[in-house]
Design brief:
Layout: H1 17-21, E1 26-31, H2 36-46, H3 68-73, H4 76-89, E2 94-99, H5 101-105, H6 110-119, E3 124-128, H7 136-152, E4 160-167, H8 177-190, E5 194-196, H9 206-210, E6 215-221, H10 227-237, E7 240-244, H11 251-265, H12 270-297, E8 304-309, H13 311-325, E9 328-334, H14 340-348, E10 361-363, H15 367-375, E11 385-388, H16 393-399, E12 402-405, H17 422-439
Parallel strand pairs: 1-2, 2-3, 4-5, 4-6, 6-7, 8-9, 8-11, 9-10, 11-12
């Protein structure tokens, strides 16, 4: 199998079940073979910071478990029974059917079935998310657009000035998504916005999704995931969008991020500037005290680093460490298989990370090839610092280096509400890196 890869850093399209599971009181329903969504749970949740199953993930997720009979005669009757039972048993606000490979190969029309329930006033949506369509990031976008189209629906009313919809990290796939979305919402609200964050503990659930068309504009904070969604929203509702490709980490990036959003929105700057000044003062208070450690022990600290992971976290961490901490990027490997049309734009983000510092972005999916690239990286006697996933552990051990796990899969750390972005997350990232530096692991 010439196209097979070892140790992928993502799931398959039906991993979009965890996009659904991240919406409060939304219930994914899998029309797939047994084990499909369980494998996604192992990769995207349990094996990715032990994030937990939540309201309707993991073993609580309804599944048709298609077998030989359904493959021969079709799976819709079994799925119909499953949907009826789920509606009776689970107190959900939204039910999303997701088809797997077997379902789509035999032609199960889940969209037609969902429409029957919609006509009865039931909040049921269908997403055709067969694994052969792509990875879970592709599935994520399919799920977003299906929910908007089939559940949120049409809208031609007024817009609310200052209300924004945030599209950014992919729930469960981005290991720190909960804490990161909390920080994104916090800083945007601090700058004067009302925020639809859509996923996680600070989302109001499906009632918040219903207000998507009322927002002044959509904010996408991601190199490529979500671009098709905000473009779809522009076509459907006529909503403008602001695309900021790099997650902000640290004061300089976060303050610049907020000013860019405020400028685009055209809202009053007084509140945002007061908030930025307060956050900056606190940030540099802590950074000043960190600098005493940094300046005293610099000789034994890492000076070069490699990043391995999805586009969003890779560029964000690389830009922060190179531009704000002064470390030298030597190997930047992107593992989420961005579509070819986005790759040149992503690679350009690595130019001029700081004065005189640029890096080359390598797009590699195969974990074996990634490991070899890391092992051969020119750390030049510096303590090897690898920002990556658990798949890079063997390379880190071989090099005698430090591994900071930030991207799928993460099997060596428990993640509850950790964040590495914004003002507060940047300090947590520094704590993590330099605790390992002085204490080992």
């Amino acid at each position: 199998m010439s196209n097979s890869i070892l140790h992928p850093h993502y799931g398959c399209a039906i991993g979009a079940a965890y996009t659904v599971a991240a919406i409060p009181k939304a219930v994914p329903i899998a029309n797939s073979g047994p084990g499909c969504v369980d494998n996604q749970y192992c990769m995207l949740a349990s094996g990715n910071g032990f994030q937990g199953a939540g309201f309707a993930g993991g073993g609580a997720m309804p599944s048709a478990n298609l077998g030989e009979k359904e493959i021969v005669f079709g799976g819709i009757p079994r799925l119909d029974l499953l949907v009826k039972s789920t509606l009776k048993i689970i107190d959900g606000d939204l039910f999303v059917i997701l088809s797997g490979c077997s379902s789509e190969l035999i032609g199960d029309d889940i969209v037609a079935l969902a429409k029957e329930y919609q006509e009865k006033g039931k909040p049921v949506v269908a997403v055709e998310a067969a694994g052969f369509k792509g990875n879970n990031l592709v599935g994520h976008e399919l799920a977003l657009e299906a929910i908007i189209d089939q559940y949120v629906g049409d809208y031609d009313g007024e817009r609310t000035r200052g209300l924004i919809n945030v599209f950014s990290e992919v729930p469960y796939f981005n290991t720190n998504w909960r804490g990161d979305l909390i920080e994104l919402k916090r800083v945007l609200e601090g700058a004067g916005f009302e925020v639809n964050i859509l996923f996680g503990p600070q989302s109001a659930g499906v009632s918040e999704w219903k207000t998507i068309p009322k927002a002044q504009f959509n904010l996408l904070v991601s190199p490529w995931v979500g671009l098709s969604t905000v473009e779809y929203l522009k076509e459907k509702y006529g909503q403008d969008y602001l695309h900021i490709p790099i997650l902000p980490i640290g004061e300089e990036a976060t303050s610049g991020f907020l000013r860019q959003v405020v400028e685009f929105a055209g809202i009053d700057k007084e509140k945002s500037e007061k908030f930025i000044a307060k956050e900056a003062d606190e940030y540099y208070y802590f950074l000043e005290h960190f600098s005493e450690f940094f300046s005293e022990y610099w000789y034994g600290l890492p000076s070069r680093f490699a990043t391995v992971g999805d586009s969003a976290y890779n560029i964000a961490v690389t830009k922060f460490l190179a531009g704000q901490i002064g470390l030298i990027p030597i190997k930047q490997i992107i593992t989420d298989n961005p579509p070819q049309k986005y790759r040149a734009g992503i690679a350009k983000l690595y130019e001029n990370l700081s004065e005189g510092i640029s890096a080359e972005a390598l797009f590699i999916e195969d974990g074996y090839e990634v490991e070899k690239e890391v092992e051969n990286a020119p750390f030049c006697g510096s303590v090897p610092l690898i920002i990556g996933s658990s798949w890079e552990k063997d390379a880190a051990v071989k090099l005698g280096g430090l591994l900071i796990e930030t991207t799928t899969p993460v099997t060596e750390e428990l993640v509850i509400n950790r964040s590495y972005i914004g003002y507060k997350g940047a300090l947590s990232l520094l704590e993590k890196i330099y605790t390992l530096t002085v204490g080992g692991k």
